[in-house]
Structures are given as structure tokens and as C-alpha cells.
Write a structure and sequence with these properties.
Belongs to the small GTPase superfamily. Rab family. Keywords: GTP-binding, Nucleotide-binding. InterPro entries: P-loop_NTPase, Small_GTP-bd, Small_GTPase. This protein is an alpha/beta fold and 133 residues long. The protein is 35% helix and 24% strand. A hairpin with a 2-residue loop joins strand 2 (58-67) and strand 3 (70-79). The chain is globular and about 45 Å long. The mean pLDDT is 89. Bound molecules: guanosine-5'-triphosphate.
Length: 133
């Protein structure tokens, strides 16, 4: 009885090891209207949304990947570009981030110049230099 219990518990740990999947949190930032929601929706749902509304706070999207046989979960944090929809939440966005994606609109130079403010926000929230961006 004891040995069969041991056997089933070790089977359990093997199956949990096999199904374990690493999750990577990617923060998506940039000016309002540059296409963050469209980009993340396209990546996760396989198509562009018909219409979007300004993001309030943050929207979460996930994409499962298989990289070299390992299951990876990409967790995209689509954040609001409008200051009034970010408010005091910002510091939470930067917690345990694995990578940051800066987005700008190629038809809008101001949104490219605006990236300096987003880089500065990263600095203010103590984003480490080792974090890919
Ligand atoms: N022409 C064109 N329009 C786009 C593209 N990507 C997004 N749009 C349009 O741009 C508008 C804003 O797109 P969103 O994805 O909502 O922008 P956002 O950066 O998430 O905006 P916030 O939520 O306010 O930060 C929408 O009307 C989209 O349809 C693109 O690649 N080409």
C-alpha cells in the first residue's frame, strides 16, 4: 500500500513537471492611439480587432508558445496610453516585468518622440537595465 502511494505521488510530480509552463510578463507601452491594443490582439487572437476603444488601466492577453519543445506563456499587458486612464496603477504594471515593448505609430513622428517619456517612466519605476526592451 505504501509503495503504491509513493508511486502515485511520484507520478504526480512528474506530470506536474511536464505540464509546467514558464510565464513571461511583457509590458506594452506607448502613446494613446498608436495601436497597442490592435497589436496585442493580433498576436493573441490571430486577427486585428474590428474596432477598439481607449484602454482604461490595463488589458491582459495571453499567447501560448512552443519554443524548442518548451511551453511558454506570453502574458501581454496592454496598458492605457492616456495619462488619465493610468493614474496610480502604473507602479503595479512594472512589478515582475520580463520585457517591455515600446510602440509608436510610424505615420506619427510625435508618437516616436513621445517614447522618451515612456523610457523615463521605466526609469522612474526602477526597471532594471537587464530587462529587454
Ligand atoms: N491604419 C492603421 N490603423 C491602425 C493600426 N493599428 C491600429 N490602428 C487604429 O488606430 C486606432 C487606435 O488603435 P488602438 O490599438 O486602440 O491604440 P492604443 O495604442 O491601444 O490606444 P490606447 O488604448 O488609447 O493607449 C484604432 O482606430 C485602430 O483601428 C495600423 O497598423 N494601421
Amino acid at each position: 500500500m505504501e509503495s503504491s502511494l509513493e508511486f502515485s505521488s511520484s507520478l504526480g510530480s512528474v506530470s506536474s513537471l511536464l505540464s509546467r509552463c514558464r510565464t513571461f510578463k511583457v509590458l506594452v507601452i506607448g502613446d494613446s492611439g498608436v495601436g497597442k491594443t490592435c497589436l496585442t490582439h493580433r498576436l493573441c487572437a490571430g486577427e486585428f480587432p474590428r474596432r477598439t476603444e481607449a484602454t482604461i488601466g490595463v488589458d491582459f492577453r495571453e499567447r501560448a508558445l512552443d519554443i524548442d519543445g518548451e511551453k511558454i506563456k506570453l502574458q501581454l499587458w496592454d496598458t492605457a496610453g492616456q495619462e488619465r486612464f493610468r493614474k496610480s496603477m502604473v507602479q503595479h504594471y512594472y512589478r515582475s516585468v520580463h520585457a517591455v515593448l515600446f510602440v509608436y505609430d510610424v505615420t506619427c513622428p510625435a508618437s516616436f518622440n513621445g517614447l522618451t517619456a515612456w523610457v523615463e517612466e521605466c526609469r522612474q519605476n526602477s526597471l532594471g537595465h537587464e530587462i529587454p526592451r
